[in-house]
Design goal:
The chain is mainly alpha-helical. Helices cover 54% and strands 0% of the residues. It is built from 10 helices and no strands. The chain is globular.
Length: 206
């Protein structure tokens, strides 16, 4: 037992362990913890604008396309003025669900946000954390608070996607895993099947 304990201690102190990227050590978590809940629409749209421009810069895309993408998203959000003016967290969630794409690409805002969380760039993540705070505001409740959000029937949600066949064995009943980003799901199986079909059409091979 003493030998096993020593081995565990060595592992904890190993350079590989110390340099391992974890959620606790991520720039995202630090930025998120420093970010206050959204109160005004200008906070949301400023973060959105910065995030899109930084994506364009990092992906070597024309800044004019970044402005077009931002304006399209902003215009779509203002179709629901009551959210923009009084329920800015609702606007953040609606932006996440937008099907608008960055000009010349298949990139939607939800993919941009998740890619930024995975890449964890120090500058980009400051703005993405603001968007994430807005999205989470209506999705997350404290465990010790009275339940105020609907819960899925039979505690089951659905997700539609495609993935390489060699990875399918990983997703077995009872498997627990963490995702570095938002994982979209639905209470309704038919909705997930629509996304599955859409993903299949966008990928020529499974």
């Amino acid at each position: 037992k003493a030998e096993e304990a020593a081995k565990r201690a060595d592992l904890e102190e190993s350079p590989a362990k110390k340099n391992l990227k974890t959620f606790a050590k991520s720039n995202y978590k630090q930025a998120y913890n420093k970010t206050q809940a959204l109160k005004q629409q200008y906070e949301l749209f400023a973060a959105l604008h910065h995030a899109i421009k930084l994506y364009a810069k990092s992906a070597d895309k024309p800044m004019e396309d970044a402005e077009i993408f931002f304006e399209q998203l902003q215009e779509e959000a203002f179709d629901y003025k009551h959210e923009v003016l009084s329920k800015v967290q609702g606007s953040a969630q609606r932006l996440w669900t937008s099907t608008k794409r960055f000009p010349g690409t298949d990139l939607e805002l939800c993919s941009l946000i998740n890619a930024a969380i995975r890449q964890d760039d120090t500058e980009m993540i400051q703005h993405v954390a603001v968007l994430a705070r807005g999205i989470n505001a209506l999705c997350i409740a404290r465990r010790d608070a009275p339940r105020s959000m609907p819960f899925p029937p039979d505690n089951c949600v659905y997700r539609g996607a495609v993935l390489p066949e060699e990875h399918m064995v990983f997703f077995s009943v009872g498997r627990k895993y963490r995702v570095p980003g938002f994982l979209a799901t639905s209470f309704q199986r038919n909705i997930s099947m629509c996304f599955c079909q859409r993903a299949w059409q966008q990928n020529s091979s499974p």
